[in-house]
Q: What sequence folds into this?
């Protein structure tokens, strides 16, 4: 059914006893048990969301094929979704009618068994009975609603199965349609409202998944020229002045956003890019993480604590890996300074 125009199908999965909106690109003709029919590509591990169905992109090669019966074809997803709701309501009403009839019959049925000892045993098939409270405008009238804890046992939908155990308590207040005093929702109305609620949750989950997959970029706060002109730091006195400036929370916030905006493809790349912006090669040649060989010690300074915190927020790391990359960068400070001076000559 692939074509140039995007369309949507209402398909019926017989094994699952389930109807669904399906993009036409997911449907193909197939020979099933010697009979021409259709098959549907469906992802195995990926959750099928409403957004995926609306976009209707072409399926991947690793998707599995399932036999499907094409019910109707539409030119828009909205039309197909409305038809799916109509089918769902119709199926729910039919199932409710059949179940009500079966419950009334089973309520008075007994099962006789013959055991090995030659005696007969009679096992009564019992179902839970719920009584509706007497109404004030009726004279001592009560109605019985017969139900069972496995009323939804044949329903394959995971969403309905997860809430099925809560239906018994709601059905205790159930009243027959057409009753003038009926103020409680019918079983079908309850099922429809639950389905709509689950659809809304599905759309919200799509938004959250999109937010997690593509997080919004960090807010950019422009820095004053007086802040920008301090970098890269040229001597130890500049480091000490920076330490004093970082006692101001506003200045600390601006520096945090500046370092965050530098970014990097990995932890090592991030540390290399940030330290190159913060320190000159000349200053890095006389500094080290722990003050090794009488170099200026940096591990207890605020500027390095800020760099470390941002690295923790954005990369998989621990203290050991962070310190290893920082030590390595400062250890090669003298080599970078020598290459710089050769280039200047």
A:
């Amino acid at each position: 059914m692939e074509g140039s125009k995007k369309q949507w199908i209402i398909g019926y999965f017989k094994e699952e006893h389930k109807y669904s909106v399906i993009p036409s690109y997911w449907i193909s003709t197939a020979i099933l048990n010697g009979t021409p029919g259709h098959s549907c590509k469906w992802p195995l591990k990926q959750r099928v969301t409403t957004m995926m169905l609306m976009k209707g992109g072409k399926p991947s090669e690793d998707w599995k094929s399932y036999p499907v019966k094409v019910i109707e074809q539409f030119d828009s997803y909205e039309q197909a979704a409305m038809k799916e709701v109509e089918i769902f309501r119709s199926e729910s009403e039919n199932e409710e009618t059949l179940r009500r009839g079966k419950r009334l019959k089973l309520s008075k049925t007994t099962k006789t068994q013959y055991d090995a000892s030659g005696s007969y045993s009679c096992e009564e098939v019992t179902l839970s009975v719920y009584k509706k409270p007497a109404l004030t405008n009726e004279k001592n009238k009560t109605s019985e609603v017969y139900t069972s804890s496995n009323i939804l046992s044949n329903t394959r939908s995971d969403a309905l199965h997860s809430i099925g155990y809560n239906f018994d308590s709601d059905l205790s207040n159930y009243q027959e349609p057409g009753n003038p005093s009926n103020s409680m929702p019918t079983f079908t109305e309850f099922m429809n409202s639950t389905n709509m609620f689950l659809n809304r949750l599905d759309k919200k989950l799509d938004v959250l998944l999109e937010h997690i997959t593509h997080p919004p970029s960090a807010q950019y706060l422009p820095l004053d020229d007086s802040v920008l002109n301090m970098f890269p730091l040229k001597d130890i006195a500049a480091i000490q002045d920076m330490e004093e400036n970082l006692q101001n929370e506003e200045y600390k916030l601006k520096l945090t956003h500046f370092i965050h905006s530098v970014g990097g493809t990995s932890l090592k790349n991030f540390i290399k890019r940030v330290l190159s912006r913060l320190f000159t090669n000349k200053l890095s040649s006389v500094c080290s993480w722990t003050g090794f060989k009488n170099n200026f010690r940096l591990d207890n300074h605020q500027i390095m604590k800020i760099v470390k915190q941002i690295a923790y927020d954005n990369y998989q790391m621990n203290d050991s890996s962070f310190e290893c990359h920082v030590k390595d960068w400062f250890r090669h400070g003298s080599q970078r300074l020598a290459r710089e001076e050769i280039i200047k000559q």
